[in-house]
Amino acid sequence: MGNDIGLYDTQGNEIATIDPKSGEIKINPGFENKVAIHLSFTAHIPVIELRDTIKNNVLFQIVLPIEAITNIEMNQGKPNYEQLLLNGNFGDFNGGYCIKNIQNDCIIYTNNL
Predict the structure, then answer these.
(1) What number of CA atoms fall less than 13 Å from residue 90's CA on the CB side?
(2) Spatial contact of 20 and 12, defined as CB atoms under 8 Å apart
(3) Does residue 108 contact residue 93 with C-beta atoms inside 8 Å?
(4) Is the pLDDT of residue 107 over 80?
(5) Cβ-based burial of 64 (10 A; exposed 0-12, middle 13-18, buried ≥19)
(6) Are residues 101 and 57 in the same domain?
(7) For residues 58 and 76, what is the distance between their CA atoms, to the nearest angstrom?
(8) Residues of the domain holding 87
(9) Are residues 57 and 94 in the same domain?
(10) Sequence-distant (≥ 6) Cβ neighbours of residue 21 within 8 angstroms
(11) 83 and 32, same structural domain?
(12) What distance in Å separates the CA atoms of residue 113 and residue 37, rounded to the nearest whole number?
């Protein structure tokens, strides 16, 4: 009963919350080893998925505005995707990341802000 948006399983347990102002998703205590947050590119837009790690199925899919994705941790890497740190002449994206697909295309860029 706060300002956050609750995500519940079929038994009515709150497994995660989303801060509607920042877009931050937090897995609630007791579910850290049962639910994981993944970034999926299968829809060609970044879709955040909450996955049941035991049954290996998607519980929730969340599409956030690009500016709300502030940190990407790659749980699935090569050969499908690779995260590269951008250093050098990348302007606003310097210090951010490029997520490359197997065709060597950067499909998403993030900056350090």
Answers:
(1) 15
(2) no
(3) no
(4) no
(5) middle
(6) no
(7) 15
(8) 71-113
(9) no
(10) 3
(11) no
(12) 21
pLDDT of residue 7: 94
Tokens of 19: 């801060």
Beta-bridged to residue 57, according to DSSP, are 52
Q: What is the pLDDT of residues 78-103, one digit of tens each?
A: 667 788 888 888 887 888 888 887 77
| Tally of structural domains, the chain | 2
Each residue's pLDDT tens digit, 2-42? 688 999 988 999 999 998 887 788 999 999 999 998 877 77
Helical spans, DSSP H, in 19-82: none
Residue 4 or 46, more confident: 4
Q: What is the pLDDT of residues 48-76, one digit of tens each?
A: 899 999 998 999 998 866 666 666 666 65
Phi, psi of 93 (to 5 degrees): -95, 0
How confident is the model at residue 12, as a pLDDT? 92
Question: 60 and 77, same structural domain?
Answer: no
